[in-house]
Amino acid sequence: MVRIFKTDIRDTFAVNAVRVKLDELLWFAKWNFDLEDQDRILRVEYPDGVVFSIEEGLQKLGLSCVELH
Q1: Is it the case that residue 6 has pLDDT exceeding 80?
Q2: Which CA distances in Å does 15 have to 6, 36, 49?
Q3: Residue 12: which CATH number?
Q4: Which of 18, 45, 48, 55 lies 20 to 30 Å from 7, alpha-carbon distance?
Q5: Contact 26, 56 (CB under 8 A)
Q6: Which domain holds residue 24?
């Protein structure tokens, strides 16, 4: 399953600042940012059947994110 989020991450410095926490939070998933996109997209790919509130987890890290449908 792939979910896509609009974020407030501005640059690679910000990505590097949260990389370890994202790896811990999303240990079951592959994730990456597309900072070239105007919405600074976060893509998260994870196995079907996993139930997890990505938005809540990222907000706990201080990141703003909204899932795009």
Answers
A1: yes
A2: 14, 13, 27
A3: 3.30.70.100
A4: 48
A5: no
A6: 2-68
